Amino acid sequence: MQEIWIDYLNAIDAKALALTDGEILDAVEKALADQGRGETVIEPRVHLVPESSDKGHFNVLRGYVKSLGFAGVKVVGDFVDNYKQGLPSELAVLNLFDPETGIPKAIIDATAITDMRTGAVTAIGAKYLARKDSKVLGHVGARGTSYWNVRLLDHLFDFEEIRVHSRRPESRNAFAERLEKDLGKKIIVTDNWQDCLDGADIMIEASRLPEPTPLFKTEWVKQGAFVVPYGTMSALEFNLTDIMNKVVVDDWGQCGPGRPYGALRRHVDEGKVTEETLHAEIGQIVCGDRPGRESDDETILFWHRGLSTTDVALGAAMVEKARKLGIGQRLRFA
C-alpha cells in the first residue's frame, strides 16, 4: 500500500494563515458559482442532539466541489453556554477527502472556517441583493459568525453607520470594541432590537434564542432593505415574507419542508415560502443564471443555513496557502 499523508492545520495554524478578506470572499464566491452551475454536491445537514436542543447540538455537513477536487465533511458543535467556560459557542473539525479514491487529504480546525464562510455568504448575498448605496447596517447577535458578517459587509460597502445588539451587555460591548479596533470606525451599541434594526439598509439577525420568539418586527423593514435572518430559532414575525419582493436561500434542499431549525422554518412548513414562490438559490444568482436585485425599490430576504461546499472551499484555500507558507503539519495515515 502506498504511503498516505494528511495535511493537519490546527487553530494556531489557521490563525497564522491570516486569510485576507479578499481571499475569503473569492473562495466562497467561486464555490457558490459552482453550485449555481450544478458542479457541486450538497447533502442536507444532519444533527446530533446529545441531550436537548436547549444545551446544544452537533451539525454534520457534507459536500463536494468538483473544481477543487475535494469532498468534505464538517462536524460543528453549537453549544450556547460555552461562554461560561471561556469557549466559543461553535467548535468544528473539517475533513477533506479525494473524491476519486476516498483517501483522506486534510484535517483542519474549522472553527474559524465556520465563522468566515458564514460571514462571506452574508456579504456575497448583499453584493448581489442589497442596494449598492447601502450605508446603514443593523446587526443583532455577537457570536463568532457575527464578526465576519460585519467585517466582510463593511469591506464591500464601507458603511457610514453600524449598529449592533446582543442580549448580554458584556458580549455586545466586547463585540463593538473588537469591530472598532479592526474596522477603524465608530460602532453604535444598542440595548434593544428596534434601535439596532429599525430603518437600516441591511438588517442581519444572528441571534441565539432558546425558542422561536418574534422579536424582529416587520414594521421596522423599509422598502428597498436587504434582510438576512439566520438564527437557529426564528426571531421573525410570520408576516415578514409578505412584504418581500424576493426570497432567496442558499440551498433549498436544506431549507425545504421537514428540516429542523431555521429562521423561516414555520414559513416553509406552513406553505408561506415554497419552492415555487422562491426567487432563487444564491448560487444561481452568482453564476448569472437568475437575476439578483433589479431595482432599488425591491425589498429582499436572504436565508442561509450554511453550505458544506463553502467549508470545503475555504478548507482548500487554507491547505493551498499553508503549503506555500510552510505552515501546519503532515501526519502519517498509512
TrEMBL record:
It comes from Martelella endophytica. This is Ornithine cyclodeaminase. It comes from the Bacteria. GO terms for cellular component: cytoplasm. Belongs to the ornithine cyclodeaminase/mu-crystallin family. Pfam families: OCD_Mu_crystall.
